[in-house]
Amino acid sequence: MHEEPTTVLIQRYLDALPTDTAPIIRELLERAVGRLHMLCATFLRKGYPRLMQPPVNLETDELLGGVVAGLLTALRTTRSPTVPRFFALANQHMPWQLIDLARRLDERPAAPALAESRVAAAPASTEDQDGRRTAAPLASQAWTAPSVSASGTACRSARRARRVT
Question: DSSP of 111-164, one letter per residue?
C-alpha cells in the first residue's frame, strides 16, 4: 500500500477546514504529529538544550502536547492556506509554550536549602535481604587499600590492620 506524502495530505485537510472544523482539525493534527514531533525535538535540542537537563527535564512530548493544544485553539479561529504557513504557526507556538513553562516554574516556590545539621545520621544497623538486622561497620573498621612495598607486594602489617573480626 502506497501512502501519499504528508505534505499533500495536510494540504487536503487545510483546504477542507472551512467546511467541518472539529474532525478535520483532529485528522490534520494526527497526520502532522510526526513532523511536529520532529520540529519540537529540533527546537528543544538546538535552541534550548538547557531545558532538557535537570531540574526541568523537559521532554519533546511535553512540548508537543502544548503545541498541539495551542494549535487546536488557533485553528478554530485562523486558517492556514498552505502547509508552510501551518508549520510556521506551529513554530510560533513553540516559544510561547516554553515561555508559559518558564512562567509556571517561576511561580513555584523554591525548595528550601537543606542544612547539614538537619541531615539524619547513618543507621546503626541495616537489614539484609532476608530482613535480618546486621550491625553497620564502624568507621575504624572501614576497608582501605593495601599498602604496597617497593617490591610490589602488600605489607603484612597493613593486612593485619584491615582485618575485621
Answer: PPPPPGGGSPPPPSEEE-TTS-EEEPPPGGG---PPPB-TTSSBPHHHHHHH--
Q: How many residues does the chain have?
A: 165
The number of folded domains in the chain is: 1
119 is a domain residue: no
Contact 28, 10 (CB under 8 A): yes
In single-letter form, the type of residue at position 27 comes to: E
For the domain that residue 69 is a member of, what is the CATH number? 1.10.1740
pTM for the complete prediction?
0.61
Write out pLDDT tens, residues 3-17: 788 899 999 988 888
Instruction: Look up the domain containing 74 and give its range.
Output: 6-107
d(CA 64, CA 35): 10
Q: Which residues of 119-146 are buried (b: 16+ CB within 10 A; e: fewer)?
A: eeeeeeeeeeeeeeeeeeeeeeeeeeee
Distance between start and end Cα atoms, the chain: 74
Contact by Cβ (8 Å): 11, 82: yes
